[in-house]
Amino acid sequence: MSDRSITRQRNLSRREVLASSLSLVAFSVVEPAWAAPLRVTPRQGAGPFYPHDIPLDSDNDLANIAGQLRPAAGTVAHVMGRVVDTEGGPFSGTRVEIWQCDAFGVYHHVGDRGGAGADVNFQGYGSTLVDEQGAYRFRTIKPVPYPGRAPHIHFALSGPGLRRMTTQLYIAGHPMNARDFILSNLRDHSTRSRVIVPFEHAPEVEAGAVAARFDIIIGLST
User: Fold this and answer.
1) Domain boundaries, the chain
2) How far apart are CA 27 and CA 192, in angstroms?
3) Is domain 3-218 annotated with CATH 2.60.130.10?
4) CA–CA dist 130, 132 (Å, integer)
5) Which residue among 38, 57, 128, 199 has the highest number of C-beta atoms inside a 10 angstrom radius?
6) Is a pLDDT exceeding 60 seen at residue 5?
7) Burial (CB count within 10 angstroms: exposed 0-12, middle 13-18, buried 19+), residue 70
8) What is the pLDDT of residues 76-89, one digit of tens each?
């Protein structure tokens, strides 16, 4: 089989997987019976590794880079949710960005060990626009520990009438959460719990993958 055929097959599979992920988001959008007012997602710092230069491939599939035949190392993770206000109304038009270290614990950033040892098949950064219901989705890898940090994914949100917001997502039950200095700054347990979500096996979305739902609640005065 030629490289061109392999690439065409991989791209088709990528579209099918993302379509399945979108279907799951569409199903889960109507699932929660939210009662207003919702509790606002706490802000957290962007950290030092937001990319200086946005990569050429910066879509919402971080586990495959356009033109690369191999996928990223690590466990594929589908991260999805909604961006809404405290009344449950969607923030349509919001851009959601994520960035994280690769499966080897390296950020794709010159400030992190010069990028030495980074997984060249991992995108490292991605962005997407929420739909009319405020739903977003990413196909990435399950986050891994970074020196001194529990596994996490950085999020940034921006859009019309929205002051740029950054926060971080953590894995429920991970033993490093208790000693992560950034997470520990959220001293109230109920506040801290809003950025910690379970990553569960999701064979119905993609074989061998996990999925996590992270709804981001933004205060109207944010």
Assistant:
1) 3-218
2) 27
3) yes
4) 7
5) 199
6) no
7) exposed
8) 999 999 999 999 99
